[in-house]
Structures are given as structure tokens and as C-alpha cells.
Design brief:
There is one protein chain. It is built from 13 helices and 15 strands. With about 425 residues, it is α/β, with parallel strands linked by helices. It has 3 domains: about 70 residues, no CATH class; about 150 residues, Aminopeptidase; about 130 residues, Glucose Oxidase, domain 1. Strand 12, helix 12 and strand 13 form a beta-alpha-beta unit. Helix 6 crosses helix 12. Bound molecules: 2-acetamido-2-deoxy-beta-D-glucopyranose (3 copies) and zinc ion. The site of one 2-acetamido-2-deoxy-beta-D-glucopyranose has 6 residues, from helix 2. Belongs to the peptidase M28 family. GO terms for molecular function: carboxypeptidase activity; metal ion binding; metallodipeptidase activity. Keywords: Carboxypeptidase, Endoplasmic reticulum, Glycoprotein, Golgi apparatus, Hydrolase, Lysosome, Metal-binding, Metalloprotease, Protease, Secreted, Signal, Zinc, Zymogen.
Length: about 425
């Protein structure tokens, strides 16, 4: 059976990596996300989308000159909004996204589908009149999911639907068979630490109200389980809606703490295991997961731009990641983000609007499986001298539904 998943990954990872230039640390990224403040809510999408500073300039701590400049863009903004909502461009981005996803499906790091989809986007950028369209080669991991299975043995036999996490280690070749401890939180695990040794730790955490606040169980589950002597961990998938649907995603290990195998099981199975344990049953599970290490391959970060007519050396980036996980088609994670990045530029081209600064669409490669942010990390290393050219970078990786606001990371002054 094919279990389709959506993994909405770390919003703004690319941006944070650009800003910090440090080595990637998924736990830290996650903490930064939580800390990141909501910059401002956008007005309802149906009205011309003009920021609060235009509607209520008195509330904005900007110079009068800047305020006047912002107000002067009103006609251009209204033209854009009219074209998108009622003009010939209406529905275009969505239709193009659908076509892209149907043509290429999953685009996991190292796959031919990913490279084919990159060729397609390069071609589309040229056809739509962008300038300086090019790919920049990056060495990326080649991710192939191995064999993954788990079965409840006691008190009855039941197949457990699961997906391994990345970069989890595998189990020994013959698999693991062990007793089980189900916990509902990290606190619950600490309270039951004495019972954890040698067991498979199952996390049956409730949905914590949002993806961001719940995902910490997937990200740190293996660390917390191993800390109290667990030998493997099965974590309830990070979702508030399930039809026996397992989700994959990134996880992390910490130095000096044993690296134990980690996978996500479904909400239904996590709840079942919890109920069985609470009614006094002794649980036993067998779990087997193999990991393939394939040689690295070459992929590309993709660029296309509208060169600025006044300050061509100053850049505004619009970006998303073109790769996806292997078990879904990455329609929203993150073909949606890449599509809106290029469509914004195509739209300006069609309307004949020009910009002071250079607008650059960037489609990052290899953000997801088999390492996080490989494409963007390569870019940062290669272009460290040019990072200062960016006036702003937009990165979309949390779904392209109705616009509800902007999350912002950066200095107070930049904010
Ligand atoms: C990653 O960041 C977390 C939180 O800031 C920190 O506790 C951890 O030690 C870091 N891990 C590594 C490998 O640097
Ligand atoms: C998105 O916005 C449109 C236009 O305002 C509205 O009709 C629609 O209901 C909104 N959809 C969601 C999911 O909020
Ligand atoms: C960045 O700015 C420098 C100095 O203005 C310029 O020489 C360089 O071409 C710029 N790079 C890009 C990619 O625009
Ligand atoms: Zn993503």
C-alpha cells in the first residue's frame, strides 16, 4: 500500500542558514522557529494587499520619505492584485503547480525525477523571459528508503504502518524484538525512566495545537528515548488528521547519546498501543529497518531573475526548495513554494513592470531527505561574499494556501 504523506518542513530553514552561515543543527533551527515572531498579519486577501504601513502609516516607525515611497507603489500593487484575482493570470500558478507535480511526482535528493524537474523549471524560466537563468551544481546525498517494518507481537499480532525518519540509523540486520513502553510526553518518559531500559519507547503525544510545537517529539524523540536506555523509538506521526497515515521527516541525534533507530507510526496505532498498555497488557514489538548508503550525486540550485533597473547589485530573493520527500509528491512541500517564487516574477514580466533591485527566484535543491539544507549550505559557502547583496529573502515552505501573514527572522532594524 502506498501511504502518501505531506511533511511540512522547517519554514525558513534556508533563510536562517543564509543569515547565520553556521553548520546546520535541526534542533536549533526548530528552536529558532518557535522563537521567530510573527511580523504582521496581512489584511484579507480579497482586498488589494497593501501592508498596514500604507493603510496606517502613522503606526509605522519609518521615515516620511520611505512612507511616501511605499504609498507611491499603490497603483502597481493594485494592478498586480487585479491581474491575479480577476485577470488572465487568475488560477495560473495553481494550474502550473498541478502540471509540475503530475509530471514529476516525488523528487527526492539524488533521484532522476529531481533532475528532470530542474531541467523543466530552467526551461520554464527561459520561456517566461527571466534573465540570467542557470543551474549551479551541488553534490547531494542520494536518498533511498530501505526496508521498514514493525509488528505488534503481544498481546496480539498486528502490522504497524510506519515510515523511518532521516537520518535515523537502521536496526541490526535481523531486526529488534523487545518489550515496549508507551509514554505521552517527555515528562511522562522521565517519570517512567526506570521502566525504559532495553525497551522500544513509543511516543503517543497528543497533537500540541500546531505542527511546530508537536514536531519536537519527532526531532528529539530518539535522543530522549536513548537517554533513559531505550533501544529504539516509534513516534506517533506529527499530524492532527490520520487515515492510518504515517508521516516521515527529519530527526536528530546528540553527541555522547547512543544513536537508536527511529520511525513514525500512525496516530491510530500509537493510541492503540497506549490503550493496551493502560489496560495492563504487556506489549512486545518486532522492528526492522535497513539503511542504504549510496554514493553522492550531482544536483543543481536553480536561479532566474528580473534584473533591477536602478540597483542591479542589490538582490531580493524569492525561494522554495524543489526537492521533496520520497513518499509523497511534494505538492506543498515544496513545489508550492517554488511555483509562487517563479510565478511572481513571470507575473511582473507579463505586466511589463520593472523593479529597482534585482528580483531573483531561487529553487534550492536537496533540502529534505538525507540531510537538511544541502543546496542552501552549498550556496552560502560558495557565495559568502554576496550574501550582503540581499536586501531581503522570502522563503516559502509551510504551504501555499491563502496568505495569512509573514514570519520574520532577522535583526530588529531589519524588521
Ligand atoms: C544543536 O542545538 C541544540 C539547541 O541549541 C544544542 O543543545 C545541541 O547541543 C546542538 N547540537 C550540536 C550537534 O551542535
Ligand atoms: C481563501 O480566500 C478566498 C478569497 O478571500 C476565500 O474565498 C476562501 O474561502 C479562503 N480559503 C480559506 C481556506 O480560507
Ligand atoms: C554584489 O555586489 C557587488 C558590489 O556591489 C557586485 O560587484 C556583485 O556583482 C554583486 N553580486 C550580485 C550577484 O549581484
Ligand atoms: Zn520543505
Amino acid at each position: 500500500m502506498n501511504h502518501t504523506i505531506f511533511f511540512v518542513s522547517s519554514l525558513l530553514v534556508a533563510f536562517q542558514v543564509i543569515c547565520s552561515g553556521t553548520n546546520h543543527n535541526i534542533t536549533k533551527d526548530y528552536e529558532n522557529q518557535i522563537k521567530r515572531r510573527r511580523f504582521q498579519d496581512l489584511p484579507p486577501f480579497k482586498a488589494p494587499v497593501i501592508g498596514p504601513c500604507v493603510k496606517h502609516p502613522e503606526n509605522c516607525n519609518l521615515s516620511p520619505i520611505l512612507k511616501a515611497e511605499i504609498v507611491s507603489y499603490r497603483p502597481a500593487v493594485e494592478t498586480i492584485v487585479r491581474e491575479v484575482l480577476d485577470g488572465e493570470s487568475k488560477g495560473r500558478a495553481y494550474k502550473e503547480l498541478g502540471k509540475f507535480v503530475d509530471l514529476f511526482g516525488a523528487r527526492v535528493s539524488g533521484s532522476k525525477a529531481l533532475e528532470d524537474s530542474i531541467d523543466y523549471m530552467l526551461d520554464q524560466m527561459k520561456q517566461n523571459g527571466l534573465q540570467n537563468v542557470h543551474g549551479e551544481e551541488v553534490v547531494v546525498p542520494h536518498y533511498v528508503r530501505g526496508e521498514e517494518r514493525a509488528e505488534l507481537l503481544t498481546p496480539r499480532r498486528k502490522h504497524l504502518t510506519l515510515l523511518g525518519l532521516d537520518p535515523s540509523v537502521g536496526t541490526p540486520a535481523q531486526g529488534i524484538e523487545a518489550d515496549v513502553l508507551v509514554v505521552t510526553s517527555f515528562e511522562d518518559l522521565k517519570a517512567k525512566a526506570k521502566q525504559a531500559k532495553g525497551k522500544i519507547i513509543v511516543f503517543n503525544q497528543d497533537w500540541q495545537g500546531s505542527y511546530k510545537t508537536t514536531a519536537i517529539y519527532r526531532i528529539r524523540g530518539a535522543i530522549e528515548a536513548a537517554t533513559v536506555g531505550g533501544i529504539a523509538t516509534l513516534i506517533r506521526s506529527i499530524t492532527d488528521f490520520s487515515l492510518n497515515t504515517p508521516h516521515t521527516g527529519g530527526m536528530t541525534y546528540e553527541a555522547l547519546i547512543p544513536e537508536i533507530p527511529a520511525a513514525c507510526i500512525t496516530v491510530e496505532d500509537a493510541e492503540l498501543l497506549y490503550r493496551l498498555q493502560e489496560s495492563g497488557e504487556k506489549l512486545r514489538i518486532s522492528f526492522k529497518m535497513s539503511i542504504y548508503k549510496l554514493p553522492a550525486t550531482t544536483s543543481r540550485n536553480v536561479f532566474g531573475e528580473i534584473t533591477g533597473n536602478e540597483k542591479p547589485n542589490e538582490l531580493v530573493g524569492l525561494s522554495g526548495h524543489i526537492d521533496s520527500w520520497d513518499v509523497g509528491q511534494g505538492a506543498l512541500d515544496d513545489a508550492g513554494g517554488t511555483q509562487i517564487s517563479v510565478e511572481a516574477l513571470y507575473l511582473l514580466k507579463r505586466l511589463g513592470l520593472t523593479t529597482h533591485r534585482t528580483l531573483q527566484a531561487i529553487l534550492w535543491t536537496s533540502e529534505e531527505a538525507a540531510a537538511v539544507g544541502v543546496g542552501v549550505a552549498d550556496y552560502v559557502k560558495r557565495h559568502d561574499k554576496e550574501l550582503a547583496n540581499f536586501s531581503a529573502v522570502f522563503e516559502s515552505d509551510s504551504g501555499t494556501f491563502n496568505a495569512t501573514g509573514l514570519d520574520f527572522a532577522g535583526s530588529e532594524e531589519a524588521g
